[in-house]
Every structure is written in C-alpha cells, then in structure tokens.
TrEMBL record:
Its EC number is 2.7.7.7. GO terms for molecular function: DNA-directed DNA polymerase activity. The keyword Transferase applies. Pfam families: DNA_pol3_delta2 (PF13177). It is an enzyme of class 2 (transferase). The keyword Nucleotidyltransferase applies. This is DNA polymerase III subunit delta.
Length: 322
C-alpha cells in the first residue's frame, strides 16, 4: 500500500462506491487541512476513474485524460528553474486564463476512454474571476468529465461551488498512520528529525514531511523554549532568526508557522486554565498568519519576529501577561 492510501479508507469507500454506481456525480470537493494527502488521493482517484479495461494507461503526470490546474511558476526565472529540475517559486493564485485554457481542452472527447478527470490543486487559490469561470463548467459539465477540487479551507469556497459538488472530508491521521506515511516517504530521516517531525505533525503527513525537509529542529526547540519561558530579553527571538535564515522562502515560512502552531497545541495539556486562554488566542493568530503569509509580501525578518512575539505572549511571564 502506498503512502497516499494510508489513513483515508472512508474517502476511498465513498469514491469507489460512486465509480461503481450508475450515475456518478461530476463534481467532487476533497476538503481538509493542508498536508493530509488530498492531492495524492485526487491523483490516485483520477487514475482509477479514467482507467479502461484492456487499455494501457500512462502515468498520471503524462495522462491525456487527467488535467491538473495549479499555480504556475512565479516568473520567467522560476520557470527556467522548473525546466532545469530545480526548486522554484509558484504564483500565489490560479488565474482565469488557466481556467479558460482548460475549458478549451474540454471541448474535445477524452483520448483513451470514456472519462476525463480535472484536478484543481488547490481551489483555495483560484482568483475570483477564475472561480466564476469554473462555475460554468460545473453547471454544464462536458460529458465524461469529472472535477476533483482540492480544498484546504472549505469555508472560503463560494457556496455556489460547494452546492454543485459532493464533499468528501479528510480528517487528521492517527499518530501510527502518520508514522507509517513518514517511514514510507522519508525512510532516510535520522531519529531526532523524525521525532520532531512527528511531534509537530498533528495528524498531517505533509506537515511532518515539510518540517523534515526544511530542517526545522532548531527552530522548533526555540519555539518550545519561548512558549515555556518567554523571551524578555529578545535573545531567543534573535536565535530564531538565525535558525530560520535571513531570507526564508514561502515554503520554509509556511512550515515554520505550522511548527509554531503545533508547538502551541502541544503545550495546551501542560498548563493551567489562564495559560490555556493565552495559548488558544495565540493559536488563532498563528492560523490567521498562516493564511496571510502567502498573500502579502511580509519582510521575512519581521515575520520571524512576529512568530516569536506571538509565542512569547503565551508564556507565563510578564510579557505574556500583558
């Protein structure tokens, strides 16, 4: 069993029952927090959907009947990095031009069989005009075309889109399932990194893998010290800036915010009621910061300081009691 099959038995049951039925719904929303494996599920589900008995099927990435929309490279330089197989930055949204280009492809029949799958990863990133354009396809779907919308925050999706789709909810995995997924995807991790990744996972294999890939062990240790002891002389926040680096990219910042959030969650069981109130407030502000960071051009050093200051405000110190 591959890592993308771990922990989502109910989602697979719903999907396969629909495929086996006589009238499968054309629109599907795969909803749940980021990092649970929804996109991997979408790719595997799409492969099952388009498969035809006796017809050889190419890999998902090269399949003519599996179309995927996701943000393009941020600029020409980032596109060049992509073409060279190097890490590259993405744009912050999926444009209306991308949706319209997709719709032009939907005017033809599927290539290898009766069905075509369209994956949007993720629908949270669609521009407003792109959502409106997509609605036309959801309202009048081409014959044999099925849409799988990966959604991290269902509440941000327009009701008109939700009403035209079947929603499948993805829930955090058990600790044992996250451990299995981590072992499968990154068996090379040393014991310390693996322990830290599991500590901040919160049921999300993606969060665990991002933590490991970004080498956030030192930063997470500082998060924990700030939450527990505060940072009255700003020394820990200074060390945190060094641990995260002078110019962390968006992926590193996102992983750091998630690690900070899970550090707060882990502290909830060890404090009194008054401290829990502060931790809950800090958790909400970190969630908000995670949503804002990909959209706004924050100065990385100021963003690092903001994370540290939020954690310090939860500590049982004079700074936290303000």
């Amino acid at each position: 069993m591959s890592e993308r099959m771990i922990g989502h038995d109910e989602a697979w049951r719903i999907w396969r029952a629909a495929i086996a039925g006589e009238r499968m719904h054309h629109g599907w929303i795969l909803a749940g927090r980021e990092g649970l494996g929804k996109a991997s599920f979408a790719r595997a589900a799409a492969a099952e959907l388009v498969a035809e008995p006796g017809v050889p099927q190419p890999p998902v990435e090269a399949h003519p009947d599996i179309l995927t929309l996701f943000p393009l490279p941020a600029n020409d330089d980032e596109a060049k990095k992509r073409d060279e197989g190097k890490p590259y930055q993405l744009k912050r949204s999926i444009s209306v031009d991308q949706v319209r280009a997709l719709q032009r492809r939907l005017t033809t029949r599927p290539t290898l069989g009766r069905r075509r799958a369209v994956i949007i990863d993720s629908a949270d990133l669609l521009e407003k005009s792109a959502v409106n354009a997509l609605l036309k396809s959801l309202e009048e779907p081409p014959v044999g075309t099925f849409f799988l919308l990966v959604v991290h925050a269902l509440g941000r999706l327009l009701p008109t889109v939700r009403s035209r789709c079947t929603v499948v909810r993805f829930h955090p995995l058990s600790a044992s399932d996250v451990s299995r997924a981590l072992d499968h995807a990154a068996p090379e991790l040393d014991a310390e990194t693996r322990k830290g990744a599991l500590a901040v996972a919160g049921g999300s294999p993606g969060a665990a893998l991002a933590f490991a890939a970004q080498d956030l062990g030192k930063a997470q240790a500082l998060f924990a010290r700030i939450v527990e002891h505060g940072d009255p002389d700003l020394s820990l926040r200074g060390a945190l800036a060094g641990a995260l680096g002078a110019r962390p990219d968006r992926e590193r910042i996102a992983a750091a915010i998630e690690a900070a959030r899970m550090t707060v969650v882990g502290a909830l069981d060890r404090v009194d009621d008054a401290a829990k109130v502060r931790l809950v407030e800090v958790h909400a502000r970190l969630v908000r910061l995670a949503g804002e960071a990909p959209i706004y051009n924050f100065d990385p050093s100021m963003l690092t300081m903001e994370i540290g200051s939020l954690l310090a405000s939860a500590a049982p110190t004079r700074e936290g009691a303000r």
